Amino acid sequence: MPPTSLFQRAPAPISNVCNTPDCLATSAFIKQYVNFNVDPCSDFFEYSCGAWINASRTKEKGTTRNSSKDVAKHNILALVDIMETSYDDFIAKHLKSNADGFNVAEQADTDRANFQKAKDFYNTCMNPERSVAEVYPDIAYLRNTLMGNHTTPEDVPAQLGHVLAFLTRSGVSSIVDASVTRNDENHDYNMVLFNPPKVPTEDIESIEAAVTNTLGQNNQTQQVIKASHDANVQLWSQNRVKSAIETYVGVQEQLQNITETLNKLPDADTITSRNISSLTSTSKLIDWLTYVSDLVNPEYLTNPTSTVYSTQQLTLALEKLIGSLTWNELQDYFTVRFVMDRYTNAMFYVSTPSDIVVSANVTSQQIECANQVGINLYNNVGRYFALETIGGINEKNEVDQLIGELQTSWLNHIPGTVWLDAATKARAVEKINALKPRAAINMIHPDWTNPGFIQSYYQNYSIDTSSYYKTISNYNAWNTDRQWKSLGDKVLNEQWSDEGYSADVNAFYDPQLNQFELPEGILQRIFYDAKFPKYLNYGGIGSVIGHELTHALDNKGRLFNSSGYREDWWTPFSNEAFQNRSQCFIEQYNKDFIVNRSTGEKIQIDGENTLGENIADSGGLTIALTAYREFVAKLNQPEPLLPELENLTQEKLFFIGYSIPRCEYYDDQLTDYNPQDEHPPWSIRVKNSLINSAEFAKTFNCPAGSPMNPHKSDEDRCVIW
């Protein structure tokens, strides 16, 4: 017997239908996703995403795809569109609405210069003239100057310090991952944080190709041979290439083992140090003082606010690794690591065109170069991306208003949380009240509405229009100096992420700042559209906002107070209640799995690892629905329904709006699926979030015991917020 469709189950409203062009377009948009032949009470994910999943474009070439990737494609095409036009044409024809509040007329010359800087980067990237010869001076400096063969044992620690600093300033990850981040004990300042090394995934074929093409003697042109000779870089025989690769692969495997071991180490067993002297006292083979000195201003080392955070387990593991290698092996390892970074980032060659077609009129090189502009000049091109895809200051204010409504709604409902005692409720309200949302555009540093601030921000970064290699090298050095040489200076108590990217579809919460960020890349159609009815926007971007708000009080966020410092502010009563309710989520998700259809293997979901995301999904959905109902109450009338979808009530469309941005399809091999990811597959996240929502079951009239309403009573649902 076929499932009962939603149209069969629901009565048909006869009035209050919107028939404007925008509503007709929105209705057509919904139909691209929803499969009305599926019973929403049996499988809501298949119901709300089924038409999209079964579309030929979703399953083409057997790739993994999701709604967010569709948005990312839209975003990258917008970046290409911006980079392929002139400044005057952009201002005249490309604005979403207007440039009100962005100081275009007041600072036209500066704005034009900023736009041209982004264009210069893009055009340099588009230039196919790249040569391996450009990498040889850096290799010579690394091998001959920093790691010359005439090294005494006494010189090794300082030389390795210089080598690691050179690699850091070049943007190359190697045996250590050191970064500048907020001081967890004093938020007025940043600190140096040493993390376990990040080991990139590299197949042996790519390593062999990179090393052979760069340093191998065979099949090199006379131009390359001359360039290597002029730089005093000796090219390697085939056996020498093979030996260097074996050393490199062996070291990378050891580094991966170190990282995996340290990541499993309980916090209670970690021995930490918070200053440079304690770091250097545990290391005999690497002079970390030399490393830090090469990167910071001299006065930082004697500054009382200076903090260098590391663990003894990390430094001792690196000591053991370094001690097992000869100097020549270290030379080869660092050389190959440098070459692999430059090769992977296509700095001295134009990458092979991708066979993935994003648009018939856009080349893969345009996509790659627009990507690079979006990453490396984010605080420049982000301004123009926002103007083209979101609008002016009025559109930003609309997003801020939506966030304010959700934040206020949750604040008003926390006091009614029955399982929290009064003391914990008061602190929870204090924290959410202090939480700082940042959305749509950066108005902190640099303020995107002020071209002068953007110009000042990038004034020390120079683009070499004759060389993409030098352009990226200059960026790496500028970006490192910008962060490391500011150590010791007071920092703002709020920030817009340095690691942002216009095309990126994401949002995130920072517990140390008690701030969440909703960048411009996610404020796009599917998640949000100013022309959508509010029920779709509340279901889409509203649930994302609610998700990030909930992270402030999830299993990790709740360990920080309203000022962003670690504090156990929960009473024993409320803490026990939170743990009990968390266990419900853990057990629920532990029962779920995803199937590799090519092998039949069932891959279990780890409810413990994914707990924070699962709590935030549930809380975000509840916050968004509650806020939408409060919006309708203030409106004092229901929103119009959509044409040809009159059987879908406003709240049914809210839940459809929640699911559509989370549509996802995995191919038979589960390409790109990572079992260690703290985010479960969207099909499971959507299913469980809705199963845990009593309001969903009521809205769709799902019978008790049906797959989407399996609980005997509401008390059986997993609910925290």
Report what the structure shows.
By secondary structure, the chain is mainly alpha-helical. A four-stranded mixed sheet has the order 2-3-5-4. Helix 12 packs across helix 16 and helix 17 packs across helix 18. The chain contains 28 helices and eleven strands. The longest helix has 26 residues. GO terms for molecular function: metal ion binding; metalloendopeptidase activity.
Please outline what is shown here:
The chain has 721 residues and is mostly helical. It has helices at residues 6-9, 21-31, 44-54, 56-59, 67-83, 87-93, 108-126, 136-146, 156-169, 204-215, 222-230, 238-263, 276-281, 288-295, 312-323, 327-344, 364-376, 378-389, 393-413, 422-434, 451-457, 468-484, 534-551, 572-590, 611-635, 650-659, 682-691, 694-699; strands at 65-66, 177-182, 190-195, 272-273, 308-311, 436-439, 508-510, 515-518, 593-596, 601-604, 664-665.
Question: How is the secondary structure organized here?
Answer:
Layout: H1 6-9, H2 21-31, H3 44-54, H4 56-59, E1 65-66, H5 67-83, H6 87-93, H7 108-126, H8 136-146, H9 156-169, E2 177-182, E3 190-195, H10 204-215, H11 222-230, H12 238-263, E4 272-273, H13 276-281, H14 288-295, E5 308-311, H15 312-323, H16 327-344, H17 364-376, H18 378-389, H19 393-413, H20 422-434, E6 436-439, H21 451-457, H22 468-484, E7 508-510, E8 515-518, H23 534-551, H24 572-590, E9 593-596, E10 601-604, H25 611-635, H26 650-659, E11 664-665, H27 682-691, H28 694-699
Parallel strand pairs: 3-5, 6-8
Antiparallel strand pairs: 1-11, 2-3, 4-5, 7-8, 9-10
Helix pairs in contact: 5-17, 5-18, 7-17, 7-21, 9-14, 10-12, 10-16, 12-15, 12-16, 17-18, 19-23, 19-25, 23-25, 23-26, 25-27
GO molecular function: metal ion binding; metalloendopeptidase activity
Domain Peptidase M13 N-terminal: 40-438
Domain Peptidase M13 C-terminal: 506-713
